[in-house]
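Hey L., structure's done. Input below.
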Amino acid sequence: MRKKIICIFLVLIIISTCTFSTAAAGRKSDTAEKDIIKIDGMDYQYVDETINGETFTHIINLTLNTEDILYYNQISGTVFLNDEPIAQIENAVSLNNSCNRNVIAPLSENYWKLHDSTTKRITWVQGIAAAALAAVIATVIPNVGKIVVIAKIGLTALSVVAAACAGAYVDCVGYTHVQNNGSVQARLDWTFRPSTGDVYGPYSKYTL
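Output:
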């Protein structure tokens, strides 16, 4: 009887270990944005987690020790906060790229080569928080974090926009430039255009 109990115990351990390993295989370690942002007198941090190819953003209130989870379903275009739909993202007509080519005063007419462009239409529910709206905007801007969105647009502006309207366009224009050493430099210009008529940007990000 004692041997039977020991065998059952060992089988349970093996099953638990296998289950844990399977779950861990589809889960990548969390990556937190380095900076902590203060919103309405409270400290926040964004942590992205990838599970089975899907990215979840943890919006952590370090002051109150609370956490909200934001998820963007790219197939439906719906953004969820704590499993509740809060925003919708869809493709829109691309902006006229010609008006944006010389924003950074390139060294010559052909210094930056247009790579591609996208325009996304975002709508959100009334009363969305600035921290959540920044995360929604960041989901459609390649390699630009939520804290950068907050730093560029500003918390006050995001709060006003979130309360004043329920929609905006986000324009992204990509450029490339081959440097003298043969390496390729990329530049991304992004602009946030809420339905209030205000325009924030274009802001530029450079990568090698």
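The helical segments are 2-25, 130-138, 146-153, 155-164. Confidence is low (pLDDT under 50) at residues 1-26, 96-109.

-- N.
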